[in-house]
Specification:
The chain has one domain. 15% of the residues lie in helices and 34% in strands. Strands 1, 2, 3, 4, 5, 6, 7 and 8 form an eight-stranded antiparallel beta sheet that branches. Helix 1 runs antiparallel to helix 2. The longest helix has 12 residues. The protein is globular.
């Protein structure tokens, strides 16, 4: 995550590619707060976009529409244990997708690259692979 963000045109509903990437990461393997975060994904909006040129976005969940996950650390944005690898047309890894939570709510959807060119827009799910080396919970 970079320190700058673009706020013009925000808040807005998630684009289909953003929602698909978010749900892909949330669904690819079970973890304790999965059901709460999946419920949040249905009502999440985008609040801003990273200023580096990548497609990463801030997320906001209306607290009255979805419960917080049970695994929440107050005031700290942390990645969930699932993540995805972004692959190019040849199937070679070129980056990844991470989902962050803060205070039990979805807070950031990050797409990062291994090279010089930022990934934008979010890749289609056909270019995402479950990262089988997920971090321990």
């Amino acid at each position: 995550m970079t320190s700058g963000s673009i706020r013009e045109g925000f808040p807005r509903p998630l684009l289909a590619s953003e929602r698909d990437a978010l749900e892909f990461v949330l669904r690819h393997s079970s973890f304790p707060e999965q059901s709460e975060l999946l419920a949040q994904a249905g009502v999440t909006t985008a609040t801003d976009q990273c200023s580096c040129g990548c497609a990463s976005i801030g997320l906001s969940v209306p607290h009255e529409l979805a419960p917080a996950s049970s695994d929440s650390e107050s005031g700290v944005s942390t990645p969930i244990q699932n993540e995805a690898v972004v692959v190019n047309d040849a199937g070679e890894p070129i980056g990844g997708v991470l989902v962050f939570t803060k205070d039990g709510y979805l807070s950031y959807l990050e797409v990062y690259n291994y090279g010089d060119d930022p990934i934008n827009p979010f890749p289609p799910v056909t270019h995402l692979q479950a990262d089988v080396s997920v971090r321990d919970a």
